[in-house]
Every structure is written in C-alpha cells, then in structure tokens.
Design a protein that fits this description.
The chain is an alpha/beta fold. The chain has two domains: about 1-155, no CATH class; about 165-185 and about 235-370, no CATH class. It has nine helices and 13 strands. Strand 4 (about 135-140) and strand 5 (about 145-150) form a beta hairpin. Bound molecules: zinc ion (ZN).
Length: about 375
C-alpha cells in the first residue's frame, strides 16, 4: 500500500506539474492552489485513473500543496523551477492528522490495516510521549524505509553569550579556516567514500543494461553513505561554530564563485558549503547568534589583516607570506578569515542601514535573514 501511495503521489505531482507548465506557457496563467486541487479531483474522478481512490487522499493533496509552495518559492526567486519526480529517486508520502492515528508509540496510517514497525532513533525521547502533527513515510533509492514525525516544540533556550566573534574562510585544501587560526579539515573518511562511490559509478557505466541492477544498488548505497557522512560533518561543524561564538562572519559564495575559476567553484560546491551556510543560518537564528554574510567579494586573501596593505598579486599556491609594509607573517587562509571578520564587524558597527549601497540582490522575505554587508569593503580588485 505504501509503495502504491508513493507511486500515486509521484504521478499526481508530475501530472499537475505538466498541466501547470502547459497552462503557463500556453495560456500565460499562473495556477493557484484551489485550481491545482480541482485538477487533482478531476484526475481522481476521471475514467482513465481509478487507482488514486485506492490510496489515501491526504498524501495526494499534500503533494499538490508542496508543489504550490515550490512554485511560490520559485516565483520569489528563492528556489529553482520545480522538477519532475523520478521513480528511482527518494519516494515519500506525507500524512496530516486526518490520515493517521498515533497511540502509545504505534502509528496507524489511513488505508493500511496494521501499524508499521519502526526503530526509534531518539534515545532521549520516549516515543509514547510525542504528539505528531504530520507524519512522512519515505523510501530512499537503496530501499531503506523511514518514518519521520513532525511535532510542535518549545523554542530552545538561547545559548549563553560567549563574547567571541569569528570570521570563516572557505578552503579547498581545508574545509574552512577561522580567524582564530583553526583549520577545519575535510574529513578523511569522506574522501575515501567518495573514491569508492566514483569506482561504483564507473563499474555501473561499464555494465550492459539489464545486468545493471546490482551495480546500481551498490552505487546508491555508496552515495547514501557519502551523503550521510557529509551531512553529519556539516551539522557538527556548524553547531560548534554557533555554540562558541556570538557573531559569525562568512562570505557569500555565490559572489565568490563567480569571481574565481570554475574548477575551484566545483570543489567548493562539492564540500557542501551551500548546505553549511543554511545550517549556520537556522542554527544562529535558533540560538540568538548573529550571522553576517559579506555580500561583496573583496581581496580578503591579499590584504594584510594587520596593517591593511594590499598585495598586487598572490598565487593560489602561496600558503604563507610576509607583509612588505609591516612585516607580519601570514598564513594565507587565516589572514583571509581575519579580514572577513573585520569587514563583518565594521559594517555591523554601522548599524542596520548597510543595504542601500550597491547591492543588486533580491531581498528575500524570510524572517531572521542574516544581515548582508554592502558597505565599508574595498572595491573589487582584478582577480585573486
Ligand atoms: Zn601589513
């Protein structure tokens, strides 16, 4: 039943998406939730599709609802164009309160006759005590099943003030380097798993179609492990930075990647910096910390953090250098992180009206957005 529900969710998503797409490009009209929901009803009563009536209707409605949110985000510039769902990707179905019952740690889903057995992964919380508002059942490409519960919870206690501020520079050699001189290395096991994944994928590419399934499953498993390890690393690292500092300053990588070369941009995106930044954003907001994102690229690596002297050039292979003006010896990345911190703090001190000058970014309406810094930073120099 759950597999069938996934299939119906996927078909509803894809057909509604195609219909919406055709309406927009053919008739030039946007589709709202009421219209999309009416289309779902028409799909369910239409002769060609009898199956959606066998599965619970709530997950299908939730799919339409999620698609509406996806389009709202797309039109607001917060997300890319919604994509079709593939049968080989992760499958999921969301149940709201009218479609499940939860009693004493047992979950009863609509149109199923027995509660699914699940392994509880929160040792500190008694599953019998939670009161879920929504339940999501999913299956990853390797065939592992998950059930996740959304619950209302109080805001966590604000973390105690530390009096510390930190600038963080993105590395390629290291994952990140802080203004305090700490180098956060890319985890070794991740590199090993990535090599393993690449091997699986090469092997898969050589196989003929038909004899492919085992290789595919193996590649999917390797991929899941890489993703899980990376997410774990990003969670630990972002949690530690937020716990230990009141103010965290980072550079906007979208800007930085445009400036730098493409292979470097790829290496940086492989490190999961976008995910890391989102984690920093929500964790900082949750714990009352201040995250400052420097909007404009500036030569953080080749400016002396001690005296402000600007080098004419600094090759990527130069790891340490001595300032010709004040004589300070610098580690390249630590110096950059110090400059990032100084730029963030300088503008933070100017108060709130730092947005007006020169920023061409669309302001997102999301609350508690990190403050963007657009003033007080040296103008872009050619290359780094
Ligand atoms: Zn200097």
């Amino acid at each position: 039943m759950l597999s069938r529900t996934f299939g119906c969710v996927r078909v509803v998503w894809n057909r509604t998406l195609a219909w919406r797409h055709a309406r927009y490009h053919g008739e030039g009209v946007k589709t709202n939730f009421t219209q999309a929901n009416a289309y779902l009803t028409a799909m369910k009563t239409g002769d060609e599709l009898a199956w959606p009536n066998e599965v619970p209707s709530v997950p299908l409605q939730q799919a339409v609802r999620h698609q509406q949110v996806a389009f709202t985000d797309f039109f607001a510039g917060r997300a890319g164009y919604p994509r079709y769902k593939s049968r080989t990707a992760r499958q999921s179905a969301e149940y709201t309160r009218s479609a499940f019952r939860y009693r004493d740690g047992r979950l009863f889903l609509a149109k199923t006759d027995a509660p699914p057995a699940f392994v509880w992964s929160w040792p500190d919380i008694d599953p019998a005590t939670i009161n879920p508002t929504t339940v999501t059942v999913s299956r990853d490409p390797c065939g592992r099943w998950y059930v996740s519960f959304a619950v209302d919870a109080d805001d966590p206690e604000r973390a105690p003030a530390t009096g510390a501020a930190v600038g963080v520079d993105v590395g390629v050699r290291d994952f990140a380097v802080t203004s305090g001189g700490e180098k956060i290395a890319n985890p070794r096991h991740l590199a090993r798993r990535e090599r393993n994944l690449a091997r699986c994928q090469r092997r898969m590419a050589r196989k003929r179609r038909g004899s492919n399934n085992r290789a595919k499953a193996k590649a999917a498993r390797a991929h899941r492990k890489v993703r899980a390890s990376r997410t774990d690393f990003l969670h630990r690292t972002s949690a530690r930075l937020v716990r230990d500092h009141d103010v965290i300053v980072i550079e906007d990588l979208a800007v930085r990647n445009m400036v730098r070369n493409r292979s470097l941009a790829k290496a940086i995106s492989d490190c999961g910096w976008g995910t890391f930044r989102r984690m920093l954003e929500y964790k900082a907001a949750r714990h009352g910390r201040h995250l400052i994102v420097i909007d404009r690229w500036y030569p953080s690596s080749k400016t002396c953090s001690a005296c402000g002297h600007l080098l004419a050039g600094l090759s990527l292979s130069t790891r340490t250098w001595q300032c010709p003006s004040c004589g300070t010896r610098h580690d390249r990345d630590v110096n950059a992180a110090k400059n990032i911190l100084a730029a963030g703090l300088a503008v933070s001190a100017c108060g709130g009206d730092v947005r007006h000058s020169g920023s061409s970014r669309v302001q997102s309406p999301v609350k508690q957005e990190p403050r963007r810094v657009t003033a007080g930073i040296p103008v872009l120099q050619s290359g780094e």
